[in-house]
Specification:
This protein is of the alpha+beta class. It is built from 5 helices and 26 strands. Strands 15-18-10-9-20-23-22 form a 7-stranded mixed sheet, covered by helices on one side. It has a 4-stranded antiparallel sheet with strand order 3-2-5-6, with no helix packed on it. A 3-stranded mixed sheet has the order 4-1-7, with no helix packed on it. β2 and β3 form a beta hairpin. α3 runs antiparallel to α4 and α4 packs antiparallel against α5. The chain is globular, with a radius of gyration of 28 Å.
């Protein structure tokens, strides 16, 4: 008896159908689902002997073209793990993850998923809270005095560091917590604050109401001090220990005297010359008395010759000073709780200063264009990230050079 090899037409068709069903089954298994765009992460309590974070609610915010679109929530497991699946790898989509722990919200940077990297992992740190501010220090700060006729226009930029492993929440004042304190000069008015700063006025000045997690925070604000004579003293008290303090006074023939600060080389910023004074390792409560004589007086008709102060540009420049001046203090934040080292930037002056300064000024100008609506959010974030990455690269080069 002969045996025919092969299969009947019906049998072949059945085999084809079975293979197709098998393929469909394989494609629908969890192994394929894991390749769907998504974010996996873990909430970690960085405070030594901190409480468990298992069971915390984690929220994902979706942005489309920079506009908030939707939210979804999940609960992390006993080890703090969580995940969000079924997201989009379209470049117009961005995602933020945040969690609330002991009344403080902790938010991740915005993430954009890519087709070639559809799943991103992240770690979201949380901390126990404290009302003790002994771990708070100012690593560098700048005070810029721009002289108008009859008005001193002041910009202050402060870089704070929380060197502990707990989030500083301040003290409760009339049902609101006050964290960072600022004692302003007498006569200060028309106070305007920058981003990341939510102040309330106090008897001595103002106080921030936002908690301060371990790490670094930059705060800036402006105010006016009117004057009616050619001589006056601006008094400013340090509310925290200050590693490096810089004072810039617009040079309009004014004489400046201050005991707490030492004169340094003048600076030229945007075609304006500034007298420059620096102080190192100032204790909490140090009085910085700035005696000014020869101030420009108002015109007889009360008009001013000033064209206005480019606050946005000056703010960016003042922040840049903390990086590009060899006299400024440099703070390095290392991973892990309570491991912030403060050291002098020996290698900073050896870096290609012209390029770094130009980049920092470009960032300040870009911020100004974005605030004025001249640049869209997507373009703004992309360009700013590129510029910032190059600044960080140059700073790291300088740091490596200081250890070489």
């Amino acid at each position: 008896m002969k045996t025919r090899l092969g299969c009947s037409r019906w049998a072949c068709r059945a085999t084809t159908i079975a293979l197709a069903m098998l393929a469909a089954t394989i494609l629908s298994t969890p192994a394929f689902a894991e390749e769907q765009p998504g974010i996996t992460g873990q909430v970690v309590n960085r405070t030594a002997d901190g409480q468990t974070v298992g069971g915390l609610e984690v929220t994902l915010i979706t942005y489309i073209n920079g506009q908030q679109s939707s939210q979804q929530k999940t609960t992390c497991d006993d080890q703090g793990g969580f995940e969000f699946r079924g997201l989009s790898a379209d470049p117009s989509y961005a995602y933020e993850v945040y969690v609330s722990y002991q009344g403080v919200e902790y938010t991740s940077p915005r993430l954009v998923l890519k087709p070639e990297e559809p799943i991103q992992s992240m770690e979201l740190s949380v901390y126990e809270t404290t009302e003790d501010d002994s771990a708070i220090e100012t690593v560098n700060s700048h005070m810029v005095l721009y002289l108008d006729q009859g008005t001193i226009q002041v910009l202050e930029v402060w870089r704070f560091v929380n060197a502990g492993d707990r989030t500083y929440i301040g003290s409760l004042v009339k049902e609101t917590r006050h964290t960072l304190q600022f004692t302003l000069p007498r006569g200060a008015q028309d106070i305007l604050s920058g981003d990341g700063f939510d102040p309330q006025f106090t008897d001595s000045g103002m106080a921030d109401t936002l908690p301060l997690p371990p790490g670094i925070r930059d705060i800036s604000f402006t105010y006016l001090i009117p004057y009616s004579s050619a001589s006056m003293t601006v008094s400013r008290q340090t509310d925290y220990p200050v590693v490096s303090f810089g004072l810039l006074v617009q040079d309009k023939g004014v004489q400046v005297k201050t005991v707490a600060l030492a004169p340094s080389e003048p600076l030229t910023i945007a075609d304006s010359r500034f007298l420059y004074f620096v102080g190192q390792n100032l204790a909490r409560g140090t009085d910085i008395d700035i005696s000014l004589t020869g101030l420009p007086m108002p015109a007889p008709d009360g008009t001013s010759s000033s064209e206005g102060v480019p606050w946005q540009w000056l703010a960016g420049t003042a922040v840049a000073l903390a990086l590009i001046l060899g006299a400024a203090a440099y703070a390095r934040l290392r991973r892990g709780p309570g491991t912030i080292a403060i050291q002098a930037p020996k290698g900073i002056a050896d870096a290609p200063e012209s390029e770094r300064e130009a980049l920092l000024l470009q960032i300040a100008s870009l911020d100004n264009d974005f605030d004025a609506g001249r640049v869209g959010e997507q373009e703004y974030r992309a360009r700013r990230s590129q510029l910032k990455a190059r600044v960080i690269e140059l700073t790291q080069q300088a740091e490596r050079g200081s250890h070489g």
